[in-house]
Write a structure and sequence with these properties.
The complex is a heterodimer of chains A (203) and B (298). With 203 residues, chain A is of the alpha/beta class. Chain A is built from 6 helices and 9 strands, in the order E-E-E-H-E-E-E-H-H-H-E-H-E-H-E. In chain A, the strands form 2 sheets. Chain A has a 5-stranded parallel beta sheet with strand order 6-7-8-3-9, with helices on both faces. In chain A, strands 2-1-4-5 form a 4-stranded antiparallel beta sheet, covered by helices on one side. Chain B has 298 residues and is of the alpha/beta class. Chain B has 2 domains: 224 residues, Rossmann fold (3-Layer(aba) Sandwich); 68 residues, no CATH class. Helices cover 26% and strands 26% of the residues of chain B. Chain B is built from 8 helices and 13 strands. In chain B, helix 5 runs parallel beside helix 6. The two termini of chain B are 15 Å apart. Classes of the chains: A alpha/beta (203), B alpha/beta (298). Chains A and B meet through helix 4, helix 5 and helix 6 of A and loops of B.
Chain lengths: 203, 298
């Protein structure tokens, strides 16, 4: 599997400045790539484009040479920086997990999701607790690629390393390509095999 | 000593959240309180400020500049000498312009001049004063909080998670403002989950886990594993990406005995007991029977 971004130009509306200009990039499902860029570069926008939340103004996003599916399950899944904005506040957490498909008990245990949390609603959980649900949800279907956008900033060190170890194990086992966006260079060196440093190329 | 807290126990509906907590902050000192989410950090700050929900019961002794911090005393000093730098913009009034909130409703010339000066000091254009809270970026909101803390002459600053969502340089800048306040003679308590940030800036670090203090030590002790004594602090140190990125299987603190009971390789029968004393060793105070050192009481 290969996820490709080919000569992509992107801006949010016609009068807005270009966020990405002539950007090309590819990742295979056996790779783990880290992205480091200054804030405001458009790292989140880059992820949104790759996961199909936004469509490029010019250029293409290709999965194995074909465009991303417009309907149904997208094999490119994104884990967001702000989990509290990524879940429906009106659903109990059990239903939120079901959005992602089947989640095994073992997975919940490894992520440290407690059973009593399942009946609660998202505003009553902390950021760190919610992020575990979001990770479980993203892994629940059968993604070929995972995009992790600053997913561990709200976690303490021990939880951070636990969650990353779990994620790396799953990614290896299921042959999922992983793209990690973070400010923490040392973290990226631990969890990815290749790091890309991006510089502002926008005039 | 600006703030002296002893034997603090905080509970909600008979569930104990924080147990046997102590804290001493001197003038010019920056103390970081580090802990995982759910370890009871914010409730501590809110209890000192007296803004915790009504069903939160805080027992123990809190002394501010040598005197007990009673309700009457709180009325005089809160917001003036003791200030809270809150976690997010939901603590601002969404319907009031930022400049007026920093001035605390005052409209006289001296106050307004001071607000303008503070905004300049923290690199905010004077037009920011006319904005409403939702028009601020994350970093700007932090600076607004800091400016409003400095409107008075704070003696004690309590910062509740001042940096999440900010990138590293911005976080360091925010923290440098707290350092400045400490240099002006205030005592600063910074509550955070970011141990690395605490290592960079604090004088003293208190590690909280499951509502209990695991270890209090100098920030320098975190430079090497050998100067840390509690198994939990050691585990935290080893979990840093630059120190091996080790992991443990424990996901939640145990409710009885030492919170780190399940993750500790040296745990004994005595660790199951509810009351584990503090031990002093060099500059550290450790709550672990295996740490060695002299037993102390508060």
């Amino acid at each position: 599997m290969l996820l490709e971004m080919r000569d992509v130009f992107f801006r949010y509306h016609k009068k807005a400045p270009w966020i990405l200009k002539n950007m090309s990039f590819s990742i295979s499902n056996t790779e783990r790539i880290g992205i480091i860029a200054p804030s405001g570069f458009g790292k989140t926008t880059l992820c949104k484009l790759l996961a199909g939340y936004e469509t490029p103004v010019k250029g293409k996003i290709l999965l194995d040479g074909k465009p991303l599916p417009k309907k149904g399950y997208c094999p490119v899944q994104m884990i967001w920086q702000h989990p509290e904005m990524a879940v429906n506040t009106k659903l109990p957490m059990k239903k939120v997990l079901e959005e992602g498909g089947e989640i095994t008990e073992e997975m919940m245990k490894k992520l440290g999701i407690q059973k009593q949390w399942l009946s609660r609603f998202s505003p009553t959980l902390s950021g760190g607790e919610l992020q575990r649900f979001c990770i479980a949800r993203a892994l629940g279907g059968n993604p070929d690629f995972l995009l992790a956008d600053e997913i561990s900033t709200m976690l303490d060190l021990l939880t951070q390393s636990q969650i990353w170890h779990f994620l790396l194990e799953e990614v290896e086992k299921r042959k999922i390509g992983l793209l990690v966006v973070s400010h923490d260079i040392r973290l990226l060196q631990q969890v990815t095999t290749k790091q890309i440093y991006l510089q502002n190329n926008i005039s | 000593m600006i703030l002296d807290m002893k034997q603090i126990t905080i509970s909600v509906n008979n569930t104990i959240l924080v147990e046997d907590f102590f804290l001493q902050i001197a003038s010019g000192e920056l103390v970081a309180l580090v802990g995982a989410s759910g370890s009871g950090k914010s409730i501590l700050a809110h209890s000192i400020m007296g803004i915790a929900p009504k069903n939160v019961v805080c027992q123990g002794e809190i002394r501010y500049q040598g005197e007990p911090l009673t309700k009457e005393k709180k009325r005089d000093v809160l917001g003036k000498e003791i200030v809270l730098v809150p976690q997010n913009i939901s603590y601002l009034d969404p319907l009031m312009k930022v400049g007026r909130q920093v001035a605390k409703g005052k409209k006289d010339k001296i106050s307004m001049e001071k607000v303008t000066k503070l905004f300049q000091k923290y690199n905010m254009h004077s037009s920011v004063m006319q904005r409403y809270p939702h028009m601020l970026s994350g970093g700007m909101a932090r600076r607004v909080f800091i400016a409003s803390a400095l409107m008075e002459q704070p003696r004690l600053v309590i910062a509740d998670e001042p940096t999440p969502g900010l990138h590293k340089e911005m976080a360091q800048m925010v923290v440098s403002h707290f350092r400045e306040m400490a240099q002006m003679g205030a005592g600063v308590l910074m509550i955070t989950h970011d141990l690395e940030l605490a290592m960079d800036c604090a004088d003293k670090i208190i590690v909280l886990y499951g509502g209990k203090i695991m270890e209090q030590t100098n920030a320098k002790s975190f430079q090497s594993e050998n100067t840390l004594y509690h198994p939990y602090t050691k585990a935290l140190w080893k979990a840093m990406p630059q120190n091996g990125f080790h992991t443990t299987s424990v996901t939640h603190p145990s409710k009885t005995g030492c919170p780190f009971l399940k993750g500790c390789t040296k745990s004994k029968k005595e660790c199951m007991k509810n009351i584990i004393p503090y031990f002093q060793k060099e500059n550290s105070i450790i709550r672990c029977i295996d740490a060695g050192g002299k037993e102390i009481c508060f």
